[in-house]
Amino acid sequence: MVRQEVDGGVAVLTLANPPVNALGAALRAALDAALGQAIADDSVRAIVLAAAGKVFVGGADITEFGKPPQAPSLPDILDRLDASPKPVVAAIGGAALGGGLELAMACHGRLAAPTATLGLPEIKLGIIPGAGGTQRLPRLIGPDAAFPMMLTGAPVSAEKAAALGIVDAVVLGDLVAAARTRALEIADSGRLPRVRDRSDKLTPEAREKFDAQAAEAVKRDPDATNVHALARAVRAGLEQGFDAAVAAERAEFRALVEDPRSKALRYAFFAEREAARVPGLAKDTPRRPIHTAAVIGAGTMGGGIAMCCANAGIPVTVIETEAGALERGLDRVKGLYAGSAKRGSITEAQREERVGRITGAVGLEHAGEADIVIEAAFEDMGVKRAIFSKLDGIAKPGAILATNTSYLDVNAIAAMTGRPQDVLGLHFFSPANVMRLVEVVRAERTAPEVLATALDLGKRLNKLPVTVGVCFGFVGNRMLERRSRAGERLLLEGALPHEVDAAVTAFGFRMGPFAMGDLAGLDIGWRSRKDFGGRAPIADSLAGQGRYGQKTGRGFYLYPDGARTGTRDPEVDALIEKTAAEHGIARRSFDSEEIVERLMYPMVNEGARILEEGIAARPGDIDTIWINGYNWPAWRGGPMHWADTVGLKTVAGALSRFAAETGDDSQEPAPLLRRLADAGSRFADWKATA
Ligand code: 3H9
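A: This is the predicted complex of the input protein with (S)-3-Hydroxyhexanoyl-CoA.
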């Protein structure tokens, strides 16, 4: 796991623990032994720490968290580095994250390749750095630069790391050779620079700035236990000696590993990666080459999808039925790119390049050359059927034909072509150029290589593709529909929109369902219910009065003078009361806990049906969809993980009660949920049998 080569007085230790050189027990033991050996070897004057593969070190092995500790620990290894009489230089060729950066910071020098990225992302896993990161980073770059970096967890580029002082230099040529030279220079100087000994960056101004940042962070996210812990750990380093502060950090880290928030975030990390593997789809499934794309429809969705292609370097033709719509769509895309360039999130050259990859055309016949055609036309079965039957005669043989439908039957769309094996759904989320989630809808006859190609394309587009089966609304919208229905029912039974929204934001969503409805436009659900059925008497009455939400200044809330946050409208309260009376429903009050249960348990129930029907392969896939497409709070791990933490017996019992109270049998626990609840089991233990 650690290769050792001694040459010219330098021992080069190369970590080789694919795929990301995570610092698991075996690698730690090998590294500790190799360091011990190099330090003891009289022919060695200096040591270089390098890594095989694209990643330097991806951090501690997250799978070991919560398990009995195995020596040597990472802090033990860092103690060895601190005590080393010989210089150790880190040659950082790729990502140095978490424990990886902590390891590098305990070395006496750090050089990075231009492609390296460096960061302490622990916060995203609900923890804080646990091997001196909260102490060494502030000593290297000042607490006022270190705290925001650890608070966001976002890595910095090699160039930025050099500018900040995290690495000594960026090396364009042979990184290991440069690290050898640097290690010998340090050995010759007779002085071992240790980050732990530095205090030059701990200036009164930097401390003051950090204090303000910490106060603000804690205020913004008062429930985030790890944000509080991070602030305390950094402060400990300013008030106590290094060793005492490291001990304080370690105690915080250990406590956080047991925090349910961290457990949920770690679960979500692995669920997201597992979602990339589709059961039964062989790894070596052949892929079709994708060099060019066509997007049908220049609306918000089509434009966003075209941008994703252009951003990934894929030339794309945007197709419309008439020149005006095309021009408006392309102008919108250009405007979005101009905005990004103005904000500095892309360079002017990138803007030009990306805009240059998008061509407009009128008429479906322009889709003939594309390797993949993504239809993003109006959400109407008739429109989609017509497009696909025409495409069948236009697209070149072997082209992948994708529909960006959010609800419709992809099997029926595929049946409009003589090549259903080439057809699947790619359900992007709005705005498509921003949202990472894509539901990849595998239809009955989609060929494995078409699915595999689409999944690869998703990654190329920097998306998070999750494979789902065909049903109305797939995974995300099908469950959302349950929540919407429950929301309407709550209003009739006594809750008011602002109470429901407050309960949902307190649960952790950025927005409640009614504020969200107003933002998206109440006309959308209204039209869709007209087309597909479904009842939402209150939302429908509002939409029927032309109260579409923010865009008309009135919906569930009032938005006077273009306000972005709504205020309560007594007329809506009266409408709700009147509608409840018409339905003969006696109203009562609900507390937030009950509101959350009423809204979320039916979603979990639908999730159970989705699993049993094989629409999603794993509970983790459902959770990945909800966290990344619907803003489910990641620290609650997604609806299925959350239900496990609540206890499935409790969830099933409550659903039976809702069914009895509302007379709605569809609230009864789904067979899978009931089975798991009766067995005292969890979704996490469930495996598909088919
Ligand atoms: C930490 O360091 C705590 C310390 O402060 C204190 C210690 C005392 N552990 O993402 P990918 C797996 S906390 C275990 O697809 P990429 C991953 O599950 C850690 N496994 O690759 C996947 O497995 P599979 C702080 C890990 O090239 C495979 O590796 N570090 C770990 O797109 C490939 O992963 C982080 O939070 C891990 N640390 O991206 C960084 N990392 O193939 C977390 C990955 O079976 N990691 N795996 O599904 C990342 O952000 C990305 O993996 C990385 C590579 C950018 C490194």
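The pocket of (S)-3-Hydroxyhexanoyl-CoA is lined by residues 19-20, 22, 55, 58-63, 74, 95, 97-99, 102, 121-122, 125, 129-131, 133, 270, 273 (CB under 6 Å). Residues 2-257 form a domain with the 2-enoyl-CoA Hydratase; Chain A, domain 1 fold (CATH 3.90.226.10).
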